Backbone:
């Protein structure tokens, strides 16, 4: 493959990265960049407090559901990290009337998918089934969300699998460097916890913990459900209301998330993986929240800095020097300010050269800024790539609707997007670079062969913390 | 990693499907240029964007020892400058009007993918740039060397530092003794370090004739517009000889082959591969049903047995991929820590024997067909998905319309067909097994917390 999409897939964590805004059905005017409009959808508040969003779309005979509950891994008790994520995964492992095996048989029999996820801010899931199976699909979906029983043997099985999942993930540095980075950058802040848990914390989780997390987090007042696809909205509203309307539970209020501290000075963690022939590294600091007023401008500048193939970082480290297959940067926009990072990898021998170059590109961003021509190009790029990334499919739109609702953002997020992009000036970019892109204060995480790169690592920070990748935890 | 064979989950059956549904909103117009390039267009105005794909019938199967991986390296070089558009221009121009691109190389094909907003100006621009690089690619020695470093890094990430990548490479290298599927698409590291400018130029001459390619355009366009632009920009490129036929046939395997890779790791990995015929073979469809029954979803036989019931593994995946020549049906298992790999193998083979010795129930057959139908719809959700499906069917079946008749192929099949192919291909003698055996790392750094 040509492109570098550094995939932090991993069994451990779903970094839900929500950049910028988004829109849906693009009006003809959108082609000229004049505007985007959110396509019509119906928002329903059920009497029990659950929020339901319904959008009719008929491109393929599929129906997509996306739900979010306002309880993420920040609600995991200390020492039981991974609880939110495990709870979500166990929804399909037994209900009052179905065993885990029956659930899988019945989902698969109609070709349906049902997957769950969690991140620091929220737990969620998505399901998809064919139009002809709407009744059966909804019945199953509601059963999993409303009637899970978390059988003891299924809890034990899943926890054991996840512990080995962490170990398997650690056999590939690329899979786990984000966990080390978040832990090192955020320290004791809840955003530093591993969403999927670690070898120790997972084994501390009991069935009672799972049931308690479900009881407090999964309540209609915490739930947002979007349904997008080939159906009639009025009929769907009735079906959802029939399935979920009688769900009366008073859950806990979502956990308050304090703003994380910025890292000050330079700090470095070296994770030793003695068989590694490349050094994987992430460098950065605390970034911004999803609702930051400058989010569109930040997205534009980051596009130029490390968000696309011809970005400054990828041009320097890949295109011009061949040091890596890919280099990129990203702001993880969360409820509270999430992480900003630059991420890449290079062979052991070129570690110093690559890190020096990375820091140099960052310095140049601050010293030289961006040009008028670059600004114009970035604007076109994010406008042109938005529709296929966020607005094309039922599942993209369902995810968008729940996301906007969760973060308290309105349709203006979509309807005003192009206008906001077009309004960005070079002066804005200078302020944004200064305000949001770190320069002197940086956290470094390197995963690689410590005996090869240990000396180089000392160059970048006064203190170097070292740990072995086989040590439990991150 | 290069898209070769499925490495991820069995649920990813994007390129497999049933097709009654295809009828809706799915008219394809075709035109063959005078130089032999066929153009497929499907109009879809849902979003103001286009997916523009070119499939070249050339991949690592067309290579030879000493220059393995050159198809993939060449794919990278296609972005590094031609005559009219110099180094970096293809990407710079595309991104400046809101487009982006990618490409992939497999054992069989090299595919270029452009996505962009569908204005007439952009379309004209893309055709101009594609025509430029198809006929006038530049070979700058400095850029070749730099790109060598990029591909070496790609190999280190996807193979050398990935237990799955490493073991999979060894599986194919062992299962194939004669045919060119034996080497990795990314190439052996020593070949990546050694191929020459002349090798690249030869490869270009061999694989990049317009008659060796198929263009697929899906999205907010009209077919007339695309055919007109193809005639203007692509038709003047002269046709040439197609790549030489790959004539080597892998001899029948007459006994299990078994290899071990020992390296520092916390968990073992097990892979098994069985020789199966090429995609055009009549057994392709029953094999797809077998794959779905064994590997698709948490109710699949192998998930149920290995992950759920016996709790020997945390993940099982695998399956088939479309190919021109006979390839492998693969199984990849991530066992739990400390599990005896022999026990995992035993359970896996018992399930394959079970499939071969008794017919699946009507319900299980129906389930597999339903999964394939839903996955078919999933493949159609995006303009990318449709461009890739149309191109793949045109290339591997010789006719994109096979996409629409696949439903009939599956409904014709019975439990006996699934049983027959399982018995025919999942035999001990036809099997190659690769096992990654974890060793403790020899660490110097140890556990000390802070050093100055």
Residues:
């Amino acid at each position: 493959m040509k492109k570098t999409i550094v995939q932090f897939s991993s069994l451990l964590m779903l970094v839900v990265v929500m950049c910028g805004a988004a829109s849906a059905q693009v009006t003809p005017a959108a082609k000229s960049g004049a505007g985007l409009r959110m396509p019509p959808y119906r928002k329903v508040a059920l009497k029990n407090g659950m929020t339901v969003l319904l959008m009719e779309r008929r491109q393929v005979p599929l129906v997509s559901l996306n739900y979010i509950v306002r309880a993420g891994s920040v609600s995991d008790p200390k020492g039981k990290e991974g609880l939110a994520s495990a709870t979500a995964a166990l929804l399909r492992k037994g209900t009052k009337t179905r065993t885990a095996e029956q659930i899988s048989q019945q989902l698969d029999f109609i070709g349906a998918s049902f997957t769950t996820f969690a991140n620091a801010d929220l737990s969620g899931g998505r399901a998809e089934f064919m139009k002809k199976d709407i009744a059966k699909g909804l019945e199953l979906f509601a059963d999993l969300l409303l009637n899970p029983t978390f059988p003891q043997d299924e809890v034990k099985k899943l926890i054991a699998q996840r512990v080995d999942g962490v170990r398997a993930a650690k056999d590939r540095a690329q899979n786990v460097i984000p966990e080390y980075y978040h832990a090192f950058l955020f320290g004791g802040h809840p955003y530093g916890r591993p969403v999927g848990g670690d070898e120790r914390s997972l084994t501390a989780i009991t069935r009672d913990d799972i049931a308690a997390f479900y009881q407090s987090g999964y309540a209609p007042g915490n739930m947002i459900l979007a349904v997008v696809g080939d159906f009639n909205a009025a009929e769907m509203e009735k079906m959802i209301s029939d399935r979920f309307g009688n769900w009366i539970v008073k859950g806990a209020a979502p956990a308050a998330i304090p703003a994380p501290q910025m890292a000050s000075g330079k700090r470095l963690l070296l994770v030793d993986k003695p068989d590694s022939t490349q050094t994987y590294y992430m460098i950065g600091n605390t970034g911004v929240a999803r609702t930051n007023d400058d989010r569109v401008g930040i997205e534009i500048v980051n596009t130029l800095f490390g968000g696309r193939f011809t970005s400054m970082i990828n041009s320097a480290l890949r295109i011009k020097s061949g040091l890596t297959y890919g280099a990129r940067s990203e702001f993880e926009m969360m409820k509270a300010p999430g992480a900003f990072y630059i991420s890449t990898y290079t062979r052991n021998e070129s570690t110093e050269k690559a890190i020096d170059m990375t820091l140099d590109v960052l310095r140049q961003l601050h010293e030289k800024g961006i040009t008028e021509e670059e600004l114009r190009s970035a604007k076109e790029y994010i406008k042109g790539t938005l529709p296929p990334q966020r607005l094309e499919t039922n599942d993209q739109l369902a995810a968008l609707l729940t996301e906007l609702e969760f973060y308290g953002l309105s349709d203006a997020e979509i309807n005003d997007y192009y206008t906001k992009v077009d309004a960005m000036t070079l002066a804005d970019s200078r302020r944004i670079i200064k305000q949001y892109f770190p320069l002197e204060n940086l956290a470094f995480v390197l995963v690689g062969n410590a005996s090869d790169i240990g000396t180089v690592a000392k160059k970048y920070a006064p203190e170097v913390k070292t740990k072995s990748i086989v040590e439990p935890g991150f | 990693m290069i898209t070769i064979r499925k490495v991820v989950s069995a649920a990813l059956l994007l390129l497999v499907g049933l097709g009654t549904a295809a009828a809706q909103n799915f008219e394809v117009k075709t035109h063959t240029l005078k130089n032999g390039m066929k153009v497929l267009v499907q109009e879809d105005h849902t979003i103001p964007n286009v997916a523009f794909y070119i499939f070249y019938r050339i991949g690592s199967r067309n290579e030879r020892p000493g220059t393995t991986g050159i198809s993939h390296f060449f794919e990278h070089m296609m972005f590094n400058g031609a005559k009219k558009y110099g180094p970096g221009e293809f990407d710079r121009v595309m991104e400046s009007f809101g487009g982006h691109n990618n490409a992939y190389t497999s054992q069989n094909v090299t595919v270029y993918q452009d996505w962009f907003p569908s204005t007439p100006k952009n379309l004209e621009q893309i055709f101009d740039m594609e025509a430029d690089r198809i006929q006038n690619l530049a070979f700058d020695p400095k850029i070749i060397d730099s790109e060598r470093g990029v591909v070496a890094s790609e190999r280190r990430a996807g193979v050398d530092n990935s237990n799955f990548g490493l073991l999979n490479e060894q599986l194919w290298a062992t299962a194939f003794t004669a045919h060119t599927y034996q080497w990795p698409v990314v190439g052996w590291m020593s070949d990546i370090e050694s191929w020459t400018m002349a090798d690249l130029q030869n490869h270009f001459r061999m694989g990049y004739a317009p008659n060796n390619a198929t263009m697929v355009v899906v999205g907010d366009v009209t077919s007339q517009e695309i055919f007109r632009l193809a005639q203007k920009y692509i038709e003047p490129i002269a046709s040439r000889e197609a790549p030489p036929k790959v004539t080597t046939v892998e001899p029948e395997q007459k006994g299990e082959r078994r290899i071990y890779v020992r390296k520092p790791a916390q968990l073992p990995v097990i892979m098994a591969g069985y020789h199966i015929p090429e995609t055009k073979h009549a057994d392709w469809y029953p094999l797809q049903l077998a794959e779905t029954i064994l590997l698709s979803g948490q109710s699949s036989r192998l998930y149920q047995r290995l992950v759920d019931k016996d709790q020997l593994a945390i993940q099982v995946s695998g399956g088939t991929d479309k190919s021109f020549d006979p390839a492998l049906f693969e199984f990849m298992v991530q066992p739990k820590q400390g599990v005896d790999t022999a026990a995992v193998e035993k359970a896996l083979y018992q399930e394959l024997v079970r499939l071969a010795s008794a017919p699946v129930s009507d319900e299980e057959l129906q389930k597999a067909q339903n999964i394939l139908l839903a996955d078919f719809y999933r493949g159609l959700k995006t303009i990318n998905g449709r461009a890739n499906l149309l191109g793949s069917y045109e290339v591997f079946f010789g006719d994109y319309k096979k996409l629409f008749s696949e439903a009939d192929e599956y409904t014709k099949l019975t439990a006996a067909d699934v049983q027959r192919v399982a018995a025919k291909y999942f035999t001990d003698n036809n099997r190659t097994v690769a096992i990654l055996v974890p060793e403790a790392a020899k660490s110097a750094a140890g556990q000390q917390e802070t050093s100055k």
User: Anything to note?
Assistant: The two ends of chain B are 37 Å apart (CA to CA).
